[in-house]
From TrEMBL:
Domain Response regulatory: 4-121
PTM text: Phosphorylated by CheA. Phosphorylation of the N-terminal regulatory domain activates the methylesterase activity.
Residue numbers bearing the 4-aspartylphosphate modification: 55
Molecular function as annotated in GO: phosphorelay response regulator activity; protein-glutamate methylesterase activity; protein-glutamine glutaminase activity
Official protein name in the record: Protein-glutamate methylesterase/protein-glutamine glutaminase
Composition bias type Low complexity, residue spans: 155-173, 191-201
Gene Ontology BP annotations: chemotaxis
Length: 410
């Protein structure tokens, strides 16, 4: 059965061209075309499409409001088409929080061309979202700006299906002594704190997760760095994980999310504003420190040079032969050379197989690897590739990943 698609754009040129591109694939049936958000809501209600492509800036009702209205009635994968500007990136990320499943740049030259890859990319994204079966993720609730002057309470015990930090019912805080700085990073200064016992927290996590065998090394084999790679559906999945980590998380974190250049700075800023940990777009020459996540810049490649004790970020132009910029494989591979097996890697929702070879390099050194499970993925591509290759030690739903990290690493 063909994938039923509703196209939404206020520009008659773009609307017509998007419809033409989608109709060029026999696996897709365009069931309607709307010229504003209000029409989109009405047509989505009537036509019940499998996937919707959505513009952002439109008269009568903008794309963000339309996404919010549509997904509140009947969750459906929405692909946002966004301009490559900082403002466009910010609006797109807001749309993702409202319920959109994915986004792609809206370039005139790509959509106008009859021979380029822009049209193929649009078709591929639509089909990938349709194969996801249903829109699985519950959006994280908006979080207040964190006060990093002290560690925020940790949250554990998720309600079924929710990815929000607030969904974890039981709370406690970690003692400062349990967060010794890894030897290879510059220790982040932490103010003195008074914390209750960790025993109640460990008990709560165990009760929620059940008795799952530890997959992360302990003692001398404990990881010194956390890696997370994601693509389609990744922004919301990353937010679900990172907003649940404490300010004094003991490891540095490297994030690789498939995004264009204009988007990663805005994404890092948004995460930094709602997370307890620090999040920023990576820059060449930076060192690593606990409780800080560095996001690979869009359109570039992020590598880690040096050794465990002297590691520094290197940001380089991407070789044309690499499909993904940034590439999970390249970043993970470089970390395997710098840290050996003292790494814990996680591959989240995403289309394709980026991350599989990077995880293979890490596993050969003795690292631990988790993959997101199929049921909570927007697109079960990258995690499936890792799991099918026998490289995933465990697979978890998105709402269980942060509690497991807290239990095993904190």
């Amino acid at each position: 059965m063909a994938v039923r698609v509703l196209a939404v754009d206020d520009s008659s040129f773009f609307r017509k061209r998007i419809v033409e591109i989608l109709k060029s694939d026999k696996a897709i049936e365009v069931v309607g075309a709307a010229e504003n958000g209000r029409q989109a809501v009405e047509m989505a209600r009537k036509l019940k499409p499998d996937v919707i492509t959505m513009d952002i800036e439109m008269p009568e009702m903008d794309g963000i409001s339309a996404v919010r209205a549509i997904c509140s009635e009947r969750p459906v994968p929405v692909l946002m088409l966004s301009s490559l500007t900082h403002e466009g990136a910010t609006a797109t990320l807001t749309a993702m929080e409202a319920g959109a499943a994915d986004f792609m740049p809206k370039r005139f030259e790509d959509l106008a061309s009859r021979t380029g890859n822009g049209g193929k990319g649009l078709v591929a994204r639509v089909l990938a979202l349709a194969r996801g079966g249903r829109y699985r993720l519950t959006r994280p609730a908006a979080a207040p700006v964190p006060d990093r002057s002290s560690a925020r309470p940790l949250t554990t015990g998720a309600a079924s299906g929710s990815t929000s930090a607030s969904a974890f019912a039981r709370t406690t805080s970690k003692p400062q002594t349990s967060f010794a700085s890894p030897s290879q990073v510059t220790a982040a200064s932490q103010p003195a704190r008074s914390h209750p016992s960790v025993a109640s927290h460990a008990s709560a996590v165990s009760a929620h997760l059940g008795r799952v065998k530890n997959t992360i090394g302990r003692g001398n084999d404990a990881p010194k760095i956390l890696l997370i790679g994601a693509s389609t559906g990744g922004p919301v999945a990353l937010q679900a994980v990172l907003t649940s980590l404490p300010a004094n998380f003991p490891l540095p974190i490297l994030l690789v999310q498939h995004m264009p250049a204009a988007f990663t700075k805005a994404f890092a800023e948004r995460l930094d504003g709602i997370c307890n940990i620090s999040v920023k777009e990576a820059q060449g020459g930076e060192t690593l420190r606990p409780g800080q996540a560095l996001l690979a810049p869009g359109g570039m490649q992020m590598l880690l040079d040096g050794s465990e004790r002297s590691a520094r970020i290197r940001v380089i132009e991407s070789d044309p032969s690499f499909t993904y910029k940034p590439s999970v494989d390249l970043t993970f591979g470089s970390v395997s050379r710098a840290f050996g097996g003292l790494v814990h890697a996680i591959v989240l929702t995403g289309m394709g197989a980026d991350g599989r070879e990077g995880c293979r390099a890490l596993k050969q050194k003795g690292a631990s690897v988790w993959a997101q499970d199929e049921a909570s993925c927007v697109v079960y591509g990258m995690p499936q590739a890792v799991a099918a290759a026998g490289l995933a030690d465990q697979q978890f739903s998105i709402e269980k990943i942060a509690p497991r990290l807290i239990e095993e690493l904190c």
